[in-house]
Structure formats: C-alpha cells, structure tokens
Amino acid sequence: MSGLRRTVFRPLDPDFVEDPYPTYDRLRREHPIGWATTPAQGYAGFWFVSRYADVNAGLKDDRFGREVAKVLPPEAFVPILEAHRPLYAMIAQWMLFKDPPDHARLRRIAAPVFALRQVNAMRPRIEALIEAAFAQVPEYGPFDIISDFSSPLSIDIVSDLMGVPEEDHPLVRGWVREITLSLDLVRTPERIAAGSRRAAELVAYFGALVCARRAKPKDDFLGLLIAAHDAGSFLTEEELLASCVLFLFAGHEASSLLIGNGLHALAQNPAEYARLRAGETQGRLVVSELLRYDSPQQIAFRHALEDVDFLGVSIRRGQTVGFGLGSANRDPDIFADPDRLDLSRQETRHLAFGAGIHTCAGSSLANIEAEMVFAVIARRFPRIEIIAAQRQESILVRGLTRLVIDCG
Ligand code: HEM
User: Fold this and answer.
1) What's the pLDDT tens digit per position in 261-291?
2) How far apart are CA 135 and CA 370, in angstroms?
C-alpha cells in the first residue's frame, strides 16, 4: 500500500474549471485514485476517485462518512468565530452532513414528502411557476437565462413546496442568495457573518411558518414534514427547521445549474436540439442524459472514518476523499461514446444524484421539474445561440453564473 501523495490534478486551474473532461479521462486511465491540491480554505487537498465502479463502491462504503469531528481531535479544526456560529450550527444539523444513525433518523422525514405520488401532485403548481418565470423573459433579444429565469424559478419552486407564500418569494430569494455567497469558495469573514445573520433569520422565518401551519393544518409538503415530526419524537424542532432550510438549498442550486448546463450543451449540439424540438426524444431520457453529460454536482466529499486501504492507497483517518460523480458519468466502461450528447441514450445509471445513503432525496422532484422546463424550452425556443457565458469557480459544483442566450 502506498500513502504517497503526488498531486495529479488541481481542481481550481482555469483550464480545468472550463473543461474538466479531458483531465477526468486521463485520471480514469492513469490514476484511478490520486491527490488533488487546492489553495481554497477548508480544502487543503483530497484524494480524488475517478472511475464509475470505484465512485459507486466508495459512496456505499461505511468507512467513508461525513462526521469528521467524531474522528479527529478539536485542535485539528480552525476555531469558528462567534459571529459565524448560527450558520455552522444550522448546517451541522443537515442530514447531508450526518452519518448513521442520525442520518437515517433525519432522512425518514423526507420519505413521505418526496414520494413520487406526492411529487406528481405538484405538477400543476410547478407548471404555473414555470409559465410565470417565462413571462418575465424578454420576447426578443438576448437575456441571461441564469439570473432572469433558472435561478429565481428554482428558488420559487422549492419555496412554494415549503409552503412559503408567493408574496414572500422575493424575500426568500434574497436570503438564499446571501447565504449561498457565504458558503462559496471565495468568501470573506464578513460574508460568512452576513450569511450567518441571514441563516438565523431564515430559521426564524420557518419557525413562524411552522407555527402558523400547525394552527391551520394543510396537506402539503410543509404539512407532511410537520406531521412526520409531530407523529414521533425522533426529530427536534431545530432539526425540523434546519431540514426546511436544507430542502431550500439542496433543491434550488443544482436544479438551476442543470438548466444552464443543459442549455449550454443543447446549444453546442444543434442536431440533438432539433430532435428534441421535433418530439423524437423522451423527456425522462433527455433529463437523464443532460444530468450525465454535464453534472451539476461534480464531486461527493467524504472523510475516512478510519485508516482505509482503497485502490492501493493508504487513506489516513480524517483525510478527505472526493468521489468524482462528473468523471464517473463519462466512464466509457459504463457509457458508450461518453463524450457524445445522445438524448436517446438508454443507459441511465448516471451518478449525478450520488449513490449510497446520501443519494439525492429530491431526485424525483428534480427530474419532473427538469422534464417540464426542457419541454417548454423546446416549444418556445426555435434555436439557442450563446452570446456570453461565465463559469462558476467551484470545486463541488459545475455550472454557469451567467449564460446570455438569444433564442429568437
Ligand atoms: C438537478 C437537481 C439535483 C441534483 C443534480 C442533486 C444532486 C444531489 C447529490 C449529488 C446529492 C448527494 C450529495 C452527497 O452524497 O454528498 C444530493 C443530496 C440531496 N439532495 Fe439533491 N440534487 C438535485 C435536486 C434536489 C432537490 C430538488 C431537492 C429537494 C427539494 C434535493 C434534496 C436533496 C437532499 C435533502 C439531499 C441530502 C440527502 C442525504 O444526505 O441523505 N435535491 N443531491
């Protein structure tokens, strides 16, 4: 076994941020596991796993988990400033950052609310929100699909789902944006403090909403969450409120990035877009392929909860491992001709929603939402021309902060 850490790639290199796929290809062939170095705070470096079979297996291996604080002494961590505590306290309660048994306890509340039947019942409401968002888009001339459409729409859909009244949607959008900035890679202590204040406000907002809903019960998403909480004492009130915020966050960013990445891919593959417009494709397969081709979440991070020998490497307890979802989704061992966008691809075993116990809880909602959005796009936009695009600088996600298109 070798614990030798030789850097095999740098995830913040501009060339990699622009197009990571040639690097993934090299890594899958030459370094199925290798050390990634980054100057970003909190990501000193990590082991990166690039092949589909290993990513899938690693995410199901309980020697890798999320609660690194359980296995490292307190002095291994940068102390948290007082002004930043509300943000970190909230995030620490998210199921996303929990291992068993707490993870299973928290995840249980998500089961009834994300059941396919429940999500299907939301279709008319999602359709109305999509129509309202399209009404804001200029009929002629270029516009930024991210700021003018996909970002507000994605926040509004999850806000609506969480029982946030329509008149409060702009308020929630503002909070979400500020908290997102505070969680960003490039962030200042001031930004984290501002995000922390907003996190406290958002939790208080959901507290009031839950109170109001208890007084006037309704059989919607928030009602189901409250019922799941009140039916047993397996969830604290703080955990219930933190879960509301998690759904808001987990639900909006990836959905918005998928719209941007999908449009970008379709603009570069006009023959495939023509097939989509001609109705020669199936919505379910289209979304699966767009998720595979340019996955919104590129890496699922875990920590070694013990010393682990993995793929010939000795991973020390507490070290970070990045499982490459985006790389796995281009693995030729699973996907024939993986760099080709094929909207009729029958192989749908992509890992864009992750794998193992943390597999995306909202995947059925995400799929339905994206199917409906791309159906409307195909109906409305005779063509897609990219005027300008700007990539998000991130290790975790891949997407665009700006995508100006002309579709007339
Ligand atoms: C295109 C859209 C989406 C993508 C690509 C996506 C992707 C993912 C991925 C990769 C994970 C696993 C992260 C990890 O293992 O580290 C995850 C977890 C999660 N997602 Fe999504 N997601 C999407 C939409 C949504 C939506 C709409 C919701 C809910 C409203 C949602 C709720 C969650 C939750 C609650 C988790 C945590 C699950 C757990 O820890 O057990 N996601 N998502």
Assistant:
1) 999 999 999 999 999 999 999 999 999 999 9
2) 18
